[in-house]
Structures are given as structure tokens and as C-alpha cells.
């Protein structure tokens, strides 16, 4: 069972949701319609990237639940590392060479 974004008026990573639904089937813990509605509500509180990361972690760990707060913390760390790396790569420090 998959859901259709045209029927849902929330910020939702549709691919991540569909992957999660399939994952739950694969681990023999399929979601009910009510459970899918609750998962949608839970996921829609987070950015699309965080939703995808939470689903990815659930699939890798063979978890039946989504840990969106944990995924949010991981996402913040990834973004901070990316920003730091970008700044390091794109900051001209050649002026210090003459000191």
C-alpha cells in the first residue's frame, strides 16, 4: 500500500514514506491505515531530508519505528560538518603566509 501526495496536504517525503511502508512489510510488521496516518503526521513535523534519514536508519537497523529526533540530531551534525568543510575549502588564508 502506498499513499498519494495529492491526497495529503502536508510536507512529506513521499519516497521515504513509501520506502518505510515497504520496509515494514518486509520485516513482517505491516502498517495499518491508521498507523500510516500517524506516521504521516509524525514525519510531516520534520524537514524532508530528516524524514529520509530517519527512514534510511530504520531500514538499515531493521527497526519497526522511526526515530525522527535522532535523525534530526544526525542531520544537524552532517550540515554543520558540510558547512565547516565548505568554509575551510573556500576561505582565502593566503594573506597569512606573509606574516
Structural class: mainly alpha
Number of helices: 4
N to C succession of SSEs: HHHH
Number of strands: 0
* Low-pLDDT windows of residues: none
Basic shape: elongated
Largest sheet: none
What does this entry show, briefly?
This protein has 99 residues and is mainly α. Helix content is 62%, strand content 0%.
Using brief descriptors, characterize the structure shown.
99 residues; mainly alpha; 4 helices; 62% helix
Structure report:
The model has no long low-confidence stretch (mean pLDDT 87). It is elongated, with a radius of gyration of 19 Å. It has four helices and no strands. The chain has helices spanning 14-26, 33-43, 48-61, 68-90. The chain has one domain. The chain is mostly helical.
List the helices and strands and how they pair.
Blueprint: H1 14-26, H2 33-43, H3 48-61, H4 68-90
Helix pairs in contact: 1-3, 3-4
Amino acid at each position: 500500500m502506498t499513499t498519494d501526495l495529492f491526497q495529503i496536504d502536508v510536507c512529506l517525503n513521499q519516497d521515504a514514506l513509501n520506502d518505510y511502508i515497504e520496509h515494514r512489510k518486509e520485516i513482517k510488521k505491516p502498517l495499518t491505515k491508521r498507523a500510516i496516518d500517524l506516521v504521516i503526521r509524525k514525519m510531516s513535523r520534520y524537514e524532508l531530508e530528516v524524514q529520509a534519514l530517519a527512514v534510511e536508519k530504520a531500514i538499515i537497523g531493521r527497526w519497526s519505528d522511526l526515530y525522527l529526533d535522532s535523525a534530526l540530531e544526525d542531520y544537524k551534525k552532517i550540515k554543520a560538518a558540510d558547512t565547516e568543510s565548505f568554509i575551510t575549502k573556500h576561505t582565502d588564508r593566503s594573506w597569512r603566509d606573509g606574516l
